[in-house]
Specification:
By secondary structure, the chain is α+β, with helices and mostly antiparallel strands. It is 38% helix and 26% strand. It contains three helices and four strands; from the N terminus they run H-E-E-E-H-H-E. A four-stranded mixed β-sheet has the order 1-2-3-4. It is globular, with a radius of gyration of 16 Å. The N and C termini lie far apart (34 Å).
């Protein structure tokens, strides 16, 4: 796959992740590659006030392997949208689980790698 195609696919995931949480300010998503891993960092505001330097933010950092990105890039548009939805759901679930744990209720930062199964979208059987 061409590098430009891969960067477009990564940007697709970034745009999908940006819509994961309601935020009083625009969420930010950034990506960078280190070795054979792409790191996507999503940051959103959970509390804001008059002094925006004191905004409370949450951060989720996803680790996606080159193999997973290539697999995602080879999917058709409908299947890529399914994967985007799965990634958003996964982030929401991880954040909710972290925030429900009394030991980390105030913590709002997590990092995790993505399982290959998230990128496996079976072909739909044709109804005849």
């Amino acid at each position: 796959m061409k590098t430009i195609d891969l960067s477009q696919r990564i940007e697709e995931i970034e745009l999908a992740l940006a819509a994961t949480f309601e935020s009083p300010k625009s969420p930010t998503v950034s990506a960078y590659q280190e070795g054979a891993t792409t790191f996507l960092t999503l940051s959103w505001v959970v509390e804001t006030g008059r002094d925006t330097t004191l905004d409370a933010r949450c951060v989720a950092r996803l680790e996606i392997s080159d193999h997973q990105i290539n697999h995602y890039a080879a999917l058709d548009t409908a299947k890529r949208r399914i994967v985007q939805g799965r990634l958003k759901d996964l982030v929401r679930q991880r954040v909710a689980a972290m925030r429900s744990d009394p030991a980390s209720a105030e913590d709002c930062s997590l990092q995790f790698d993505i399982d290959d199964a998230v990128f496996d979208v079976p072909d739909e059987p044709y109804n005849i």
